[in-house]
Amino acid sequence: MKKVGHFGTFDVDNYGDLLFPHIAEFRLPKYQWDHISPTNNQTVFKDSRPIISFDKAKNNAYDAILIGGGNILHLLPNYVTVYNNKKGFAYANLWVGAAKIAIEQKIPLLFNAPGISRGFKGFIQKKIAIKTFKSSNYLAFREGISKQIVSNSIKRDLNFKNKICVVPDTAFDIHKLWPLDTSTGSNYITINLNSRYHCPINETAKELDALSKKLKMPIKLIIIGDCHGDKFFTEQVSKLMKCDYSIVESDELKTVAHVIGKGKYFLGSSMHGFITALAYGVPSFLVLNNKSKVLHKFKGLLELAELSNNVILNSFNNVGNKLNESAYLTKQVKQKIDNTLNEHWQVLNNIIQSKEKPKFSFYIVKFDTLLNLSNRFNRILNKFF
After folding, report:
1. Cα gap 24→45, rounded to integer Å
2. What InterPro entries does the record tag this protein with (predicted)?
3. Cβ atoms of residues 284 and 326 within 8 Å
4. CA pair distance 190, 248, nearest whole angstrom
C-alpha cells in the first residue's frame, strides 16, 4: 500500500484545519496516511485523525507528498505565529520542507488547494516560493487571489511551465463525508464569534438578543476555533446575553458539522463554518464588522461559490432584514463544485500512481538556512532604518 505524507496545521484547536485529514482519507481511501504538523500536540477534538510531527516525518519514507489545504503558504518566522514557543519556520516546513522531502525521496509533490495568506517579500522569500511552486507536480490553490499572487511573482520567469489550478476548498465535501441523518433540522440559529470581527462585546450581545427575538429562535453559540481564543470571547459575550441561548463546545468535529448542518441559519466569521453551512444547504451570512478589509480568502470563496458580497454583513443587526439575500448554493453551482473536486482528486490519484518526480532546487534544499540568513539581515536593517 502506498503511503502519503500529508502536511498541514492539524495540531491546533481549529475545526477547519482538522477536516482536511478526514477528507483526504475519504477521497483517497486506498492509501496509507501520515498527517504531518509542526508538532504532535493532540487537539480537543477526539475524532481528529492521528498526527506526527514534522521532525519525525523527515525520517519516514513516502510515495507522495500532499500539501494542504488551509491558509498555510507563508514564510513567516515562528515568533509571529501560533508556534511562537518554537524556533524556526514551522509554516515553511509544511510546504517548502515538504518539497525538500519530496526532492530527496524523488516522489510526487502535490498542492492540495491551500491558500497564500500574503505576498512574498524580499528576494530570498520570493525565490524560495517560486522554486517550490515550480518544483511541484501539481499546483492547485483554493481561490483565484492566491493564484494571482503566484502569477505576479513569476512574470519574469519564462521557464515556469506549471499549470496553476483553482479548486474549491476541499471542505466542501463535508456533506459527503458526514451526511446528516434523516431527521429534520432544528429551529435554531448557529453563530460563531471571534474577537477580531465581533467587538465590542456589549454591542454584539445586544445584537444577538434582538436577532433571537426577531426570528423567534434560540441561539447556539458554537466554538469553532479556540486556537484563536474563541471560547473565552464567546463566554464573555454570552454573559451579557438575555435571550435563549446555549454554548456548543463539542470535542467531536462531526458534532460541530452537524450542529451547523441542522440549524435554520448560520452566522459568523468562520470560513469553514460558512463552507459547512453551504455544503449542507443552510442559509448563511458572514458577519465581519470591518467589511472594507475583508481577507482575500473570503473574497475568493464567494467568487467560486458565485455569491455576491451582500452575504457579508457588518453586524448581526443587519441579518433580520436581509434573510432573502442569505448565502445558498444553487444546484448548478453545487454540481460545478462537485465536478471540480472530483476531477481534482482524480488528478492527485493519477500523479501518485505515476511516480512523477519534483524538480530539484538549491533554494528548497537549503531553505531553512536561507530563511534564517534573510531574517537576521532584516533584523539588522530594522535596527538602523
Report:
1. 18
2. Polysacch_pyruvyl_Trfase
3. yes
4. 9
Tracing cell 492509501 back to the chain, one arrives at 31
Q: Is the pTM of this model over 0.90?
A: yes
How far apart (Å, rounded) are the C-alpha atoms in residues 376 and 72? Answer: 23
Q: Which residue has the cell 458526514?
A: 178
Ordered domains of the chain (ranges, CATH):
3-167+355-384 (3.40.50), 176-330 (3.40.50.2000)
Long-range contacts of 212-217 (CB under 8 A, 24+ apart): 212/243, 212/244, 212/245, 213/243, 214/320, 215/189, 215/264, 215/265, 215/320, 217/187, 217/188, 217/189, 217/264
Which alpha helices (DSSP H) does 33-122 contain, by range?
Answer: 54-57, 90-92, 98-105
8 A C-beta contact, residue 96 and residue 5 = no
Cell of 55: 521532525
Q: Is 145 exposed, middle or buried (0-12, 13-18, 19+ CB in 10 A)?
A: middle
For the stretch 107-159, pLDDT in tens is 999 999 999 988 898 899 999 999 999 999 999 999 999 999 998 888 767 67
Task: Establish how many alpha carbons lie within 13 A of residue 112's alpha carbon, considering only the half-sphere containing its beta carbon.
Answer: 33
Which amino acid, residue 54?
F
CA distance 17 to 349: 22
Q: Which of 82, 64, 69, 66 is nearest to 19 (CA)?
A: 69
